[in-house]
């Protein structure tokens, strides 16, 4: 059967029998292609026009109600106060030109409620003129939190700790001292008797973006109480040689200053308890330095030891007595040492190498004097050693 001509022309522009170009078929197909091209031009042109208008409208909305930048323009530090609602956060962002519209930010936050609930009070490093989404994401990123850290080193006297807090937290020392002198709101334990010495627990703290004298001092006091609760300090102190928590804190503060290594602290506590039980002066250089308000030296002078002061435990009047109060802020191992001193009959100890912390414990004065000779030899071994011994 012969194939219909129209069918052949759908497959080829040549006549399959003669191989010649079929002019009629070419004209027919050109008409069809022209219609398609014209239709496409109309669709594409109209689509371009409609799409352009839609994009312009979208961008007009975005630029009126939201910034479109992710990178932003300038760095800015923004603080969200405690208790802020999402609306208040949004308003703050708008006021600081982080976002263009508080309403846009609030609407975006509502679309991510679980994550919005994680935005916390604090200080954040942000950028100005960023989109609501970018601002939201930055507030969720811990890397953007500005952490105001404060370290209170071990063994500081209250006066030294206050000086460091003043410098690092940028709070006038007079304001800190005013809190210490009126400590009702500090949160001290009842047995502290309103005295803050010894209660600024040594640790690194986050103190917030805008700390006050009261808020910054409440933090280490609260941490002391936390540690004390963890080791059952009050109950154990009543059963310890100290007899009550305040006396145990005093002993811990002296141990903190006297023992160079944590491994020696329980033995140092035992030496002092043994001396007190025998009615001897404690003869702690750390207490004598406290009484004379000196720092930076391992030893004290004969003149300093002669000072008639209840904190100078070289003075005969202090025989069998602890100091009236703590001389430093002790950390956990010193507190534990005061609660549970090591077993032993030692009455003396001396650190014979101030670099390594090597300490010798003795129960006779003769043996102790031999240890003291070792320390003196170490001090005389070099100018550097001499400086460490005498300041």
Helical run tally: 17
Helix content: 40-55%
* Approximate shape: elongated
* Alpha carbon gap, first and last residue: 121 Å
Strand/helix succession: HHEHHHEHEEHHEHHHHHHHEEHH
Q: How many individual domains? A: 3
Commentary on this structure:
51% of the residues lie in helices and 8% in strands. The chain starts with a helix and ends with a helix. The chain is elongated and about 90 Å long. It folds into three domains: 75-104 and 119-146, Dna Ligase, domain 1 (2-Layer Sandwich); 149-230, no CATH class; 244-390, no CATH class. A three-stranded antiparallel β-sheet has the order 1-2-3, with helices on one face. By secondary structure, it is mainly alpha-helical. The model is unreliable at 1-10, 36-43, 48-52 and 54-61 (pLDDT under 50). The protein has helices spanning 5-11, 23-65, 86-95, 102-110, 113-116, 132-140, 158-169, 173-181, 213-230, 233-239, 245-258, 265-277, 285-292, 302-305, 332-339, 365-380, 383-390, and strands at residues 75-80, 122-127, 145-146, 149-152, 203-206, 348-351, 359-362.
């Amino acid at each position: 059967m012969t194939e219909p001509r129209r069918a052949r022309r759908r497959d080829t522009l040549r006549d399959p029998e003669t191989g010649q170009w079929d002019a009629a078929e070419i004209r027919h197909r050109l008409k069809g292609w022209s219609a398609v091209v014209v239709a496409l031009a109309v669709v594409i042109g109209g689509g371009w026009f409609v799409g352009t208008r839609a994009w312009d409208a979208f961008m007009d909305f975005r630029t009126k109600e939201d910034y479109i930048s992710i990178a932003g323009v300038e760095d800015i530090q923004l603080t969200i106060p405690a208790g802020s609602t999402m609306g208040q956060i949004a308003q703050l962002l708008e006021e600081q030109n982080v976002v263009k519209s508080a309403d846009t930010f609030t609407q975006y936050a509502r679309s991510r409620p679980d994550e919005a609930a994680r935005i916390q009070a604090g200080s954040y490093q942000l950028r100005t003129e960023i989109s609501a989404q970018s601002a939201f994401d930055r507030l969720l990123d811990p890397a953007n939190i500005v952490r105001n850290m404060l370290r209170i080193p071990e063994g500081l006297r209250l006066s030294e700790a206050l000086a460091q807090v003043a410098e690092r937290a940028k709070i006038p020392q007079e304001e800190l001292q005013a809190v210490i002198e009126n400590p009702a709101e500090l949160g001290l334990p009842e047995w502290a008797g309103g005295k803050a010495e010894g209660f600024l627990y040594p640790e690194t703290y986050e103190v917030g973006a805008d700390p006050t004298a009261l808020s910054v001092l409440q933090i280490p006091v609260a941490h002391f109480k936390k540690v004390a609760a963890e080791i059952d300090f009050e109950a154990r102190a009543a059963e310890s040689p100290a007899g009550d928590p305040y006396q145990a804190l005093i002993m811990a503060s002296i141990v903190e200053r006297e023992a160079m290594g944590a491994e020696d602290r329980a033995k140092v506590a035992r030496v002092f308890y043994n001396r007190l039980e025998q009615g001897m002066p404690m003869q702690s250089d750390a207490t004598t330095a406290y009484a004379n308000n000196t720092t930076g030296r391992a030893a004290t002078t004969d003149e300093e030891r002669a000072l008639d002061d209840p904190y100078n435990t070289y003075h005969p009047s202090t025989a069998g007595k602890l100091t009236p109060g703590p001389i430093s802020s002790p950390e956990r191992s010193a507190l534990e040492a005061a609660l549970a001193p090591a077993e032993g009959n030692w009455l003396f100890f001396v650190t014979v190498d101030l670099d390594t912390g090597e300490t010798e414990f003795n129960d006779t004065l003769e043996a102790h004097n031999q240890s003291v000779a070792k320390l003196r030899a170490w001090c005389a071994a070099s100018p550097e050693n001499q400086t460490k011994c005498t300041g």
